[in-house]
Structures are given as structure tokens and as C-alpha cells.
Write a structure and sequence with these properties.
CATH superfamily of the largest domain: Response regulator
Radius of gyration: 25 Å
Distance between the termini: 57 Å
Shape: elongated
Strand content: 5-15%
Number of helices: 7
Number of domains: 2
Strand order of the largest sheet: 2-1-3-4-5
Number of strands: 5
Low-confidence stretches: none
Helix content: 55-70%
Structural class: alpha/beta
CATH architecture of the largest domain: 3-Layer(aba) Sandwich
Length: 191
């Protein structure tokens, strides 16, 4: 089974602690950095499954970094924070599904459990988004076919079944999808 790719953002101590906690699990650490700006570039180029970041970064707060990283829509984030910092993160989490907070000091079980759930949730959401996109496309294709059938029925006094058979024949003969034939029919008779 392929391991999920992780980028860690924080000081050397944070990187070391997180690496040690994740090294026995199903995660592979593909990059680490202390800079939020550097991390954004790595996220864009390496497409990790998860980013784990400290709240205290060298060039911006973990809160600001999380907002920027989340806007990329690539992967979930876990922010490591103290109790007071977590209150700011709670405001951010109200509107975003893929930002999680783990309190320091780092607890191995909690970090691993949160990492696993964050990646699993992100993958599930991605699957649902793909399904929704596919269903929308199927619906649009169906609408095109129905509109083209209506045009053929009206222009050539065909039954609904005969209009569909005629479109299917044209699609097979032209080696094109029936949706393309439907678009062509609509374009030809758009007056």
C-alpha cells in the first residue's frame, strides 16, 4: 500500500517531533521547511496528502498560512498550537472542512489519529466531488440529447424513438459521441 505524502512546516524541533511520531505509520514525509512561503511552493509542486504545520512560523502565523494553503484546495492541514492559539484556529475551522488543530505538546496517538482522519476525509470529499461532476456532465449530456431529439421530431416528423435511433446511427457512423451529434443538430437548427 502506498503511503500518504506529508509536508511538515515548522522549526527543526517540530519537524523532528512530528517525523518521529509519524515514522511508524502509513505516512511518508516528502518535505519539511521552516518557511510558510517555501511550504506553499512545495504544496503546489509536490501535491501532498497532508500538511502538518506549527502555529509559530518564521514568516507568518500558522493561522495565515492555513488560510493561504487551504485556498489551494490540495490537501488538509493540521495546525499544532497551544490552547490560546487554538481559539483563533476554531474561527477558521467554522467555515473550512480540511483544517484540524492538535494541541502541543504533541501526543503520538492524537496526531496519528487526526492525520489519518484528515486524509481519509479529504479523499472521501474528493470522490464525492468527482461523482457530482460526473453526474452534472451526464445531466447536461442528457439535456442536449433530449433537445436534439425534439428538434428532429419537429423538423422531420419523427417519433421520439426514431429520432434517437437516427442520432445514434449518425454517432456510430461518424465515430463520435452521441452528445457531439446532439450539439451539431442543435447548432444546425438553432434558428
Amino acid at each position: 500500500m502506498e503511503k500518504d505524502k506529508v509536508i511538515i512546516v515548522g522549526s527543526k524541533e517540530i519537524v523532528s517531533a512530528v517525523s518521529k511520531n509519524l515514522e511508524t505509520t502509513d505516512f511518508s514525509i516528502i518535505a519539511s521547511t521552516a518557511s510558510a512561503n517555501d511550504a506553499l511552493g512545495k504544496i503546489n509542486s509536490l501535491f501532498p496528502h497532508l500538511v502538518i504545520t506549527d502555529y509559530n512560523l518564521s514568516d507568518m502565523s500558522g493561522f495565515d498560512f492555513a488560510k493561504l494553503a487551504e485556498s489551494l484546495h490540495i490537501c488538509p492541514l493540521i495546525i499544532l498550537s497551544n490552547q490560546m492559539q487554538s481559539e483563533y484556529i476554531d474561527d477558521l475551522k467554522n467555515n473550512i472542512l480540511d483544517i484540524f488543530c492538535v494541541l502541543k505538546p504533541i501526543n503520538n496517538i492524537i496526531l496519528n489519529h487526526t492525520a489519518y482522519l484528515a486524509v481519509k476525509l479529504a479523499k472521501t470529499i474528493h470522490e464525492y466531488e468527482n461523482t457530482i461532476t460526473d453526474l452534472k456532465q451526464q445531466l447536461e449530456n442528457r439535456k442536449l440529447i433530449e433537445k436534439a431529439k425534439g428538434i428532429l421530431m419537429k423538423k422531420f416528423a419523427l417519433s421520439e424513438n426514431d429520432a434517437y435511433i437516427e442520432m445514434r446511427k449518425k454517432a456510430m457512423n461518424a465515430a463520435k459521441p452521441i452528445e457531439q451529434i446532439a450539439k451539431n443538430i442543435i447548432e444546425i437548427f438553432k434558428n
